[in-house]
Amino acid sequence: MRGIDKRWVILGVLLVAAVALNSRSIDLSNIGVLMLRFALLFPAIILHEVAHGYTAYLLGDPTAKRMGRLTLNPIKHVDPVGTVILPIALLVMSGGAFFFGYAKPVPFNPRNFKNERTGMLLTGIAGPVTNIALAVVFGIGLRFFPETGPVWLGYVFTGLYYFAYFNLVLAFFNLVPVPPLDGSRVLQWFLPDALRDAYHSLERYGFLALIALTWVFPGLFSAYLNVTVEPVFRLLTGMA
């Protein structure tokens, strides 16, 4: 278990149990589309993380480069729980309607930045900005996609559709200002030093707080997506 946080191992076990209890809810007739959606999650989260590391590198921090994380090789970024167990569990539990995931965070050392506060802001925002840029390119591309064609063209359309949507979900989810999400790197730029230190101290509890909020208020995440991702996706693609 070396190198894996035991909290995420426990979470993984619970999610696997949930999958076993809900395995009959998924529509296996659409397994091809579900596998495509799962596969498209990888480039979205990998590019998100590489953007963090490369921005930090441009700002003077070589940590990610030294650790071999400025690469598109998915093996370097896979998190056992966040990249595999969590998305599969959510996919099954929702009957194929929704899933989410994350990669191993790219390490950076803010002390290497000339301006630590601004460096953290730019490094933090780089991931969501990358996802939004990808969503813009592929979302607008859907507007020019032919309405009819061979079967394989339908799979290409489905891939573009979900890739644009996933990137928006990743961007807006990470912009939530709860440490250690990227939105916290943005908010810290506006906080006074004393309050900023206290805010950063919450980082170790951030993901647990998000899980608790999702558990207590199951419609909260969907409501957030409805007022952020959905209108932007409609604007880009022209689809209702």
List descriptors.
globular; single chain; mainly alpha; 240 residues
Write the layout of secondary structure elements.
Blueprint: H1 6-22, H2 31-58, H3 63-66, H4 80-93, H5 116-142, H6 151-174, H7 182-187, H8 193-200, H9 206-216, H10 220-227, H11 229-237
> Radius of gyration from the CA trace?
19 Å
Mean pLDDT: 82
Give the helix proportion (percent range): 55-70%
Elements, N to C (H/E):
HHHHHHHHHHH
Q: What overall form do the CA principal axes indicate?
A: globular
Reported for the largest beta sheet, the result is:
none
**Count of the separate structural domains:** 1
Which stretches of 5+ consecutive residues score pLDDT under 50? none
Termini, distance in Å? 46 Å
Q: Estimate what percentage of residues fall within beta strands.
A: under 5%
Q: How many helical elements?
A: 11
Structural class, please? mainly alpha
What is the number of E strands?
Answer: 0
3D structure, described in words:
The protein is mainly alpha-helical and 240 residues long. The protein has one domain (26-237). The protein is built from 11 helices and no strands. Helix 2 runs antiparallel to helix 5 (116-142). It is globular, with a radius of gyration of 19 Å. The mean pLDDT is 82.
Write a concise synopsis of the structure shown.
The chain is an all-alpha fold.
